Amino acid sequence: ERESDDDSYEVLDLTEYARRHHWWNRLFGRNSGPIVEKYSVATQIVMGGVTGWCAGFLFQKVGKLAATAVGGGFLLLQIASHSGYVQIDWKRVEKDVNKAKKQLKKRANKAAPEINTLIEESTEFIKQNIVVSSGFVGGFLLGLAS
């Protein structure tokens, strides 16, 4: 059977819906506000501490690996330079470094509003979840030390 043409349809404006609902509500549901509202203080500290420790431990391991690779590369370059295998044009290096500095200054001035917005959002998140954030910082420091 065909439906009549006089049926009415409800139109849903998705742009207005998206403005009213944050991305985490769409992803996790309506009850996914700040963690403070959902868990006890002890649970929040443990969650923050465990995730912080994992992040600190990984940061330490990756940092050691990166430092070893960069240091080893500089050592090999220095040995090759002293042995005569590599000739370094220091005037060209200085010119390129100065050029890179100028480009970085230009880009830094353009990115300032985006960085300020990111800092404000991060600060607001930390304020809303201060217990988890402090647990994370403590765990991160312990992860770096272990």
Protein architecture, described:
Helix 3 packs across helix 5. The chain has 5 helices and no strands. The longest helix has 43 residues, at 41-83. It has 146 residues and is mainly α. The protein starts with 13 loop residues before the first helix and ends with a helix.
Order of helices and strands: HHHHH
The best one-word shape is flat
The percentage helix is over 70%
Low-confidence stretches: none
Structural class: mainly alpha
The amount of beta strand, in percent, is: under 5%
Q: What's the rounded overall pLDDT mean? A: 80
Radius of gyration, in angstroms, nearest whole number:
27 Å
Give the end-to-end Cα distance, rounded to a whole number of Å.
Answer: 72 Å
Tally of helical runs: 5
Largest sheet: none
- Number of β-strand runs: 0
Structure, briefly:
By secondary structure, this protein is an all-alpha fold. The protein is 76% helix and 0% strand.
Question: How would you describe this structure in keywords?
Answer:
146 residues, mainly alpha, 5 helices, FUN14, transmembrane helix
Any chance you could write out the topology, listing elements then pairs?
Blueprint: H1 14-20, H2 23-28, H3 41-83, H4 90-128, H5 130-145
Helix pairs in contact: 3-5
